[in-house]
Amino acid sequence: QVQLVESGGGLVQPGGSLRLSCAGSGFTPDYYDIGWFRQAPGKEREGVSCISSEDGTTDYTDSVKGRFTISRDNAKNTVNLQMNGLKPEDTAVYYCAASSLRCSLSYLHNYYAMDHWGKGTLVTVSS
To answer: 91: closest CA among 69, 111, 117, 63?
Structure first.
Protein backbone atom coordinates (compact mmCIF):
# COMPACT_ATOMS: atom_id res chain seq x y z
CA GLN A 1 0.00 0.00 0.00
CA VAL A 2 1.04 3.57 -0.60
CA GLN A 3 2.52 5.25 2.43
CA LEU A 4 4.09 8.66 3.00
CA VAL A 5 5.94 9.47 6.20
CA GLU A 6 7.15 12.96 7.03
CA SER A 7 9.99 13.74 9.39
CA GLY A 8 12.23 16.64 10.36
CA GLY A 9 9.81 19.00 12.03
CA GLY A 10 10.54 20.72 15.29
CA LEU A 11 11.00 24.00 17.09
CA VAL A 12 13.26 26.58 15.49
CA GLN A 13 13.92 30.28 16.04
CA PRO A 14 13.02 32.85 13.40
CA GLY A 15 15.69 32.92 10.74
CA GLY A 16 16.62 29.32 11.36
CA SER A 17 16.46 26.31 9.08
CA LEU A 18 14.86 22.90 8.99
CA ARG A 19 14.95 20.09 6.50
CA LEU A 20 11.81 18.03 6.11
CA SER A 21 11.74 14.62 4.51
CA CYS A 22 8.92 12.63 2.98
CA ALA A 23 9.66 8.94 2.65
CA GLY A 24 7.47 7.09 0.22
CA SER A 25 6.73 3.41 -0.06
CA GLY A 26 4.36 1.24 -2.03
CA PHE A 27 5.12 2.99 -5.30
CA THR A 28 8.05 3.67 -7.57
CA PRO A 29 9.70 7.10 -7.44
CA ASP A 30 8.47 8.03 -10.91
CA TYR A 31 4.84 7.20 -10.25
CA TYR A 32 3.61 10.33 -8.46
CA ASP A 33 4.41 13.99 -8.36
CA ILE A 34 4.99 14.91 -4.72
CA GLY A 35 3.92 18.07 -2.99
CA TRP A 36 4.39 19.69 0.38
CA PHE A 37 1.39 21.35 1.98
CA ARG A 38 0.93 23.01 5.32
CA GLN A 39 -1.92 23.84 7.63
CA ALA A 40 -1.96 26.16 10.60
CA PRO A 41 -4.71 25.90 13.24
CA GLY A 42 -7.94 27.42 11.99
CA LYS A 43 -6.59 27.95 8.49
CA GLU A 44 -7.05 26.20 5.20
CA ARG A 45 -4.41 23.82 3.98
CA GLU A 46 -2.14 25.48 1.45
CA GLY A 47 0.32 24.23 -1.10
CA VAL A 48 3.97 25.02 -0.45
CA SER A 49 5.94 23.27 -3.15
CA CYS A 50 5.84 20.32 -5.50
CA ILE A 51 8.25 18.37 -7.66
CA SER A 52 7.73 16.36 -10.81
CA SER A 53 8.36 12.62 -10.78
CA GLU A 54 9.60 12.76 -14.36
CA ASP A 55 12.05 15.60 -14.77
CA GLY A 56 12.34 17.27 -11.39
CA THR A 57 10.40 20.37 -12.39
CA THR A 58 9.40 22.34 -9.31
CA ASP A 59 6.92 24.96 -8.25
CA TYR A 60 6.63 27.08 -5.11
CA THR A 61 4.04 29.28 -3.57
CA ASP A 62 5.13 32.92 -3.60
CA SER A 63 5.52 33.19 0.16
CA VAL A 64 8.37 30.65 0.25
CA LYS A 65 10.22 31.43 -2.96
CA GLY A 66 13.87 32.08 -2.28
CA ARG A 67 13.66 30.45 1.14
CA PHE A 68 12.49 26.88 0.53
CA THR A 69 13.94 24.32 -1.84
CA ILE A 70 12.32 21.03 -2.77
CA SER A 71 14.36 18.08 -4.01
CA ARG A 72 13.94 14.41 -4.74
CA ASP A 73 16.13 11.40 -4.09
CA ASN A 74 14.74 8.65 -6.29
CA ALA A 75 17.12 6.04 -4.89
CA LYS A 76 15.46 6.45 -1.51
CA ASN A 77 12.04 7.40 -2.85
CA THR A 78 12.27 10.47 -0.67
CA VAL A 79 11.34 14.10 -1.23
CA ASN A 80 12.96 16.78 0.89
CA LEU A 81 12.03 20.34 1.69
CA GLN A 82 14.89 22.54 2.80
CA MET A 83 13.46 25.51 4.67
CA ASN A 84 15.71 28.50 5.31
CA GLY A 85 14.99 31.89 6.77
CA LEU A 86 12.01 30.55 8.66
CA LYS A 87 9.40 32.98 9.89
CA PRO A 88 6.72 32.65 12.57
CA GLU A 89 4.18 32.65 9.74
CA ASP A 90 5.65 29.35 8.57
CA THR A 91 4.43 27.62 11.72
CA ALA A 92 2.13 24.80 10.69
CA VAL A 93 1.77 21.08 10.33
CA TYR A 94 3.54 20.16 7.13
CA TYR A 95 2.20 17.32 5.04
CA CYS A 96 3.54 15.63 1.98
CA ALA A 97 1.15 14.31 -0.60
CA ALA A 98 1.22 12.27 -3.77
CA SER A 99 -0.81 12.78 -6.89
CA SER A 100 -0.94 11.60 -10.46
CA LEU A 101 -1.58 15.22 -11.38
CA ARG A 102 1.26 17.24 -12.84
CA CYS A 103 3.24 19.45 -10.48
CA SER A 104 2.16 22.99 -11.23
CA LEU A 105 0.70 26.07 -9.63
CA SER A 106 -2.69 24.44 -10.06
CA TYR A 107 -1.41 21.39 -8.21
CA LEU A 108 -0.49 23.59 -5.27
CA HIS A 109 -3.85 25.31 -5.35
CA ASN A 110 -5.86 22.09 -5.28
CA TYR A 111 -4.82 20.13 -2.22
CA TYR A 112 -8.13 18.32 -2.27
CA ALA A 113 -7.08 16.51 -5.45
CA MET A 114 -4.17 14.69 -3.84
CA ASP A 115 -4.35 10.89 -3.89
CA HIS A 116 -2.34 10.12 -0.74
CA TRP A 117 -1.26 12.00 2.36
CA GLY A 118 1.24 11.57 5.12
CA LYS A 119 0.26 12.23 8.71
CA GLY A 120 2.26 15.43 8.94
CA THR A 121 5.13 16.87 10.93
CA LEU A 122 4.86 19.98 13.08
CA VAL A 123 7.07 22.97 12.40
CA THR A 124 7.06 25.69 15.04
CA VAL A 125 8.96 28.91 14.42
CA SER A 126 9.17 30.94 17.60
CA SER A 127 11.64 32.84 19.73
So the answer is: 63
Q: CB neighbours of 107 closer than 8 A, spacing ≥ 6?
A: 33, 35, 47, 50, 59, 99, 101, 113
- Which residue type occupies 78? T
| Chain mean pLDDT for the chain | 96
Mean pLDDT to the nearest integer, 64-85:
96
Tell me what pLDDT residue 105 has: 86
- Listed as own residue / partner, the contacts of 20-24 with beta carbons closer than 8 Å and 24 or more positions apart are 20/80, 20/81, 20/83, 20/94, 20/96, 20/121, 20/123, 21/78, 21/79, 21/80, 21/81, 22/78, 22/79, 22/80, 22/81, 22/96, 22/118, 23/76, 23/77, 23/78, 24/77, 24/78, 24/79, 24/98
Left, alpha or beta for 114 (phi > 0: left; psi -120 to 50: alpha)?
A: beta
Element (H, E) at 18: strand 18-25
